[in-house]
């Protein structure tokens, strides 16, 4: 395909000299098109030079702002400059197809990328280094990814509630087919099973993780004739919406209904009562993603490609023992 001899291809793939830059480029492009592995770096390989493209197509408030700040600070420690692509409007721009050929960009950190898995795989096939933080969909096997231990965190939170006697627990879940949504529901179901309870699909609402949608979904659950004794929000924002819905119905928290969240952002400590929640290591997500990317840019071999960071249950005043009628 490259129009050169086997010996020339061998020299390129093994990082040997005596190959013109033009010929080396021909061979490397042919290797990429055939889906093969690129050349082995010689001796002490030079790090890939350039800035890091950070894509976070969401408003940089609380959750996302914390992660982006951590990414920026860690890149600064490694002497890397940052090119930021952020904001809701960024969701409508097709960035990934042109990213590999963008001048001066060495690699990328993609935060909760909305792009389909096929676009991520296509970017990886061009041997462009990138790391995904909190993937929305299962990333390609050989793409480094960092996320929190969603299932373990949700399981711990639900176990806390079942330990308080709750058996009928409503869930304001995240969007369908999100990795985090599926993992947290799995953790919730496992904790219920540990308590000898079979989860009820009618107690689950899939919504966007905002205060408004959390308020609406929680209202539906609290208006059931046999309402749940506890509600779990996909995140702290959804849990705040649930608090509002409970107050509007004259329900006391936690005496009449317990409410829990996820993330432990500042909002969880600004409510009355303060939220019981699961703390995600948001700063460490950013640090770990940059660490993985820098290792790739320094031409180190990665083995643990998909990393989960532990979560922590933070018990506050919004959860309490189930109320016994009488």
What would you say this structure looks like, in words?
By secondary structure, the chain is of the alpha/beta class. It folds into 3 domains: 1-45, no CATH class; 51-148 and 283-310, 3-Layer(aba) Sandwich (Rossmann fold), CATH 3.40.50; 150-280, 3-Layer(aba) Sandwich (Rossmann fold). Helices cover 37% and strands 16% of the residues. The strands form 3 sheets. The chain has a 6-stranded parallel beta sheet, with helices on one face. The protein is elongated. The termini are far apart.
What level of helicity do the residues show? Answer: 25-40%
User: Could you give the order of strands across the largest sheet?
Assistant: 2-1-3-4-5-11
Q: What is the architecture of the largest domain at the second tier of CATH? A: 3-Layer(aba) Sandwich
CATH topology of the largest domain: Rossmann fold
Largest sheet: 6 strands, parallel
Along the chain, the helix and strand elements come as HHEHEHEHEEHEHEHEHEEHEE
How many structural domains? 3
**What fraction strand?**
15-25%
Q: Which segments are poorly predicted (pLDDT under 50) over 5 or more consecutive residues?
A: none
Characterize the overall form: elongated
Average pLDDT works out at 91
What structural class do you assign from the helix and strand content? Answer: alpha/beta
Number of strands: 12
Say which CATH homologous superfamily of the largest domain is assigned: Response regulator
Ends: how far apart?
Answer: 82 Å
Number of helices: 10
